[in-house]
Design brief:
Homodimer. It catalyses: XMP + L-glutamine + ATP + H2O = GMP + L-glutamate + AMP + diphosphate + 2 H(+). This is GMP synthase [glutamine-hydrolyzing]. Its EC number is 6.3.5.2. It is a single chain. By secondary structure, this protein is α/β, with parallel strands linked by helices. It has 3 domains: 188 residues, Rossmann fold (3-Layer(aba) Sandwich), CATH 3.40.50; 188 residues, Rossmann fold; 96 residues, 2-Layer Sandwich (GMP Synthetase, Chain A, domain 3), CATH 3.30.300. It is built from 14 helices and 20 strands. Helix 5 packs across helix 6, helix 6 crosses helix 11 and helix 13 runs antiparallel to helix 14. The relative contact order is 0.09.
């Protein structure tokens, strides 16, 4: 869907765990960029993509190993600005005639300090007080720079921590400017895109116009159905599609019996009445809960729900002759679904939006948000005029409460979970904390515990409260509630929700945990 009228920056991914952060830093500068695995970038791709500049990411491999990843040689002949990060620096030096060493004294991990050697355009305003703190993560280092390069910064174990061939606009750093632990790293990216001639014209207003034009071109006069969950992603996608194609769009809101309290009524009122969209309220609770009966494995539950969603969309698409299914896939979903090495990747959990459609549906996908991060989706929602009550909602997973109910799902457990979750969110709102939290919810645990209420013994469920802070959901930390808040909330849940007699708070970060329990 990318519009080549906007300047584009290409990020070639060599497998770094933080490559996505490079894209985030650039998007914050209103620069459009895309991440592509190194093994999918050849000369033909580069010609078609026509980047104004290229960044080579870090990676876990060693350029001293035969068969390790390389950049297309064409990159160094195009006359466009290049920036190599960590492994990207080593690739650049190796391919241009420098030397990279591996062994004793070449590694450097964690916080380090770079000492400036000479002034350099991409470092303008960066070295403010002498040495600058950076984050290193490398086993090899450059021991001889390629012809034309000069050294502009050193660190204890990286004699060429910052190098550049200014005449060719080639720049290379051994550290990671994209991470939080390089405090002024964003300034380096800002200077790089400025010297590359980017004007910062990639705004949500521009994306809105571009997306609408692309939707109309892809869809033509055909009918489209959109899976509407009421979450931020699908809500923004639905409003964008409606603006683009009007009555060609039919939204299908699947009520699978795994929604939060009052959610169905809220979504239907919002989109049918306020936006006057064609909306099918598909009450399929018996279908979903029947298929989930007796299932306790989390991946099995996800796959059952994913398959049933497709069956339901197919059921409602056929009568209206829909040729396209629209969904709110985001850029992190796309990136995480691609293994940079092209090899097998570990499945942490299935993502219901990535992976294509069964052939029986005979439909194509429309994914107007697949180039956006979550915060950008919220910005687009505001651009489209969605109310803050929807734009600012915490993420809610497609499988719904099924993955907040570890173990077997039953209707009584779901009802208990709904009530507990409603009390918890009400508490968060009352204390003015909702907008400070990325995501908050209750999970009902597959255990029962002994308690006492009044003079009687209880044997009821335990629940876990979960609340995390995050920028984009890729990493997360628990929210530091006060003990007073937690005590007050636990008391309310136990007093107001029949079936729960014990409340815990989950303080696991991501990683090692995931945000959701399943």
């Amino acid at each position: 869907m990318t519009d080549i009228s906007h300047d584009r920056l290409l990020i070639i991914d060599f497998g770094s765990q933080v490559t996505q952060l490079i894209a985030r830093r650039l998007r914050e500068l209103n620069v459009y960029c895309e991440i592509h695995p190194y093994n999918s970038v050849d000369e033909a791709f580069i010609s078609g993509f026509a980047p104004r500049a290229v960044i080579l990411s870090g990676g876990p491999d060693s350029v001293t190993r035969d068969g390790s990843p390389r950049a297309p040689q064409k990159l160094f002949e195009m006359g466009i600005p290049l920036l190599g990060i960590c492994y990207g620096q080593q690739v650049m030096m190796h391919q241009l005639g420098g030397t990279v060493d591996s062994g004793h004294g070449t590694a450097e991990f964690g916080r380090a300090f770079v000492t400036p050697q000479n002034s350099l355009n991409i470092l303008e305003g960066w070295f403010n007080d002498g040495d600058e703190q950076v984050w290193m993560s490398h086993g090899d280092h450059v021991s001889k720079i390629a012809d034309g390069f000069e050294v502009y910064g050193t660190s204890p174990n990286a004699p060429y921590a910052i190098t550049a061939d200014v005449a060719r606009n080639f720049y290379a750093v051994q550290f990671h400017p994209e991470v939080h632990h390089t405090p002024n790293g964003s300034k380096l990216y800002e200077n790089f895109v400025k010297l590359a001639g980017f004007t910062g014209d990639w705004t949500m207003g521009a994306y809105r116009e571009q997306a609408i034009a692309a939707i109309r071109e892809q869809v033509g006069d055909e009918q489209v159905i959109c899976g509407l969950s009421g979450g931020v992603d699908s809500s923004v996608a639905a409003v964008l599609l409606h603006e683009a194609i009007g009555d060609q769009l039919t939204c299908v809101f699947v009520d699978h019996g795994l929604l939060r309290m009052g959610e169905a009524e809220e979504v239907v009122t919002m989109f049918r009445d306020h936006y006057n969209m064609k909306l099918i309220h598909a009450n399929e609770q018996e279908l979903f809960l029947g298929e989930l009966d007796g299932q306790s494995d989390p991946e099995t539950k996800r796959k059952i729900i994913g398959k049933l969603f497709i069956d339901v969309f197919d059921k409602y698409a056929r009568p209206i002759g829909a040729k396209f299914l629209a969904q709110g896939t985001l850029y992190p979903d796309v990136i995480e679904s691609v293994s940079f090495s092209g090899g097998p990747s570990v499945t942490i959990k299935s993502h219901h939006n990535v992976g294509g459609l069964p052939e029986k549906m005979d439909m194509a996908l429309v994914e107007p948000l697949r180039e956006l991060f979550k915060d950008e989706v919220r910005d687009l929602g505001r651009e489209l005029g969605l109310p803050d009550s929807f734009v600012g909602r915490h993420p809610f997973p497609g499988p719904g409460l099924a993955i907040r109910c570890p173990g077997e799902i039953t209707r009584p457990k779901l009802e208990i979970l709904r009530k507990a979750d409603a009390v918890y969110i009400d508490q968060i709102r009352k204390h003015g904390l909702y907008d400070d939290i990325w995501q908050a919810f209750v999970a009902i645990l597959p255990v029962r515990t002994v308690g006492v209420m009044g003079d009687g013994r209880t044997y009821d469920y335990a629940c876990a409260l979960r609340a995390v802070t995050s920028v984009d959901g890729m990493t997360a930390d628990y929210f530091p509630f006060s003990h007073e808040f937690l005590g007050e909330t636990a008391t309310r849940i136990i007093n107001e929700v029949e079936g729960i007699n014990r409340v815990t708070y989950d303080i696991t970060s991501k990683p090692p945990g995931t945000i959701e329990w399943e």
